[in-house]
Amino acid sequence: MSNLIEDIIISYNEYLDRIPNGINQIIENLRDDNIGDALSLILEFSEGIQWLSQVNAHLMANGYDSNLDENVLKRTYIQLNEGLEIKDFLLVADLFEYEIGPYFEKLNIIEYRK
Questions:
Q1: Which of 78, 68, 59 has the alpha carbon at shortest distance from 106?
Q2: H or E stretch covering 107
Q3: Torsion angle (degrees, nearest 10) of CA 58, 72, 38, 45
Q4: Which of 16, 23, 68, 92 is deepest in the core (most CB within 10 A)?
Q5: What pLDDT does residue 66 have?
Q6: Using alpha carbons only, how large is the chain's radius of gyration in Å?
Q7: DSSP string of 64-104?
Q8: How far apart are CA 46 and CA 67, in angstroms?
Q9: Tens of pLDDT, residues 61-110
Q10: Contact 59/8 with Cβ under 8 angstroms?
């Protein structure tokens, strides 16, 4: 089981490291009016965040703590969906730049304990 936990932590931390670049790509595509590419990346981002949430729950059940806040994730989904529903892509870009990006930059990596 410890190898599985270690692998999960490695994947979790690697994904956290890739989030800022993905967010920057979303912002650039939205601001450059490449909406199709941006929406595809937003879908990938959403799926990744769901995965992070599931992994976080598993890690917490095994005694590991992170500062990933499910309430923040839920609020983020609501705000993103509202912006996407009204096709306010500048609002969505701003959400990624000023709220989502800074939030994910504050997340701690998880240290594996042997």
A1: 68
A2: none
A3: 0
A4: 92
A5: 84
A6: 15
A7: ------HHHHHHHHHHHHHHHHTT-HHHHHHHIIIIIHHHH
A8: 18
A9: 988 888 899 899 889 889 999 999 999 999 999 999 999 999 999 988 88
A10: yes
- Which tokens belong to 110? 């998880």
Q: Which of 49, 40, 57 is nearest to 104 (CA)?
A: 49
Instruction: Name the token pair of 18.
Output: 């890739």
C-beta of residue 30 within 8 angstroms of C-beta of residue 45: no
Instruction: Measure the CA–CA gap between 56 and 48, rounded to whole angstroms.
Output: 12
- 17: three-class secondary structure by DSSP: helix
Using DSSP, state whether 56 is helix, strand or coil: helix
Scored b (16 or more CB within 10 A) or e, 3-41 reads eebeebbeebbeebeebeebbebbbebbeeeeeeebbeb
The residues near 3 (Cβ < 8 Å, ≥ 6 apart) are none
Cα–chain-centroid distance for residue 82? 18
Check residue 1 and give its pLDDT: 58
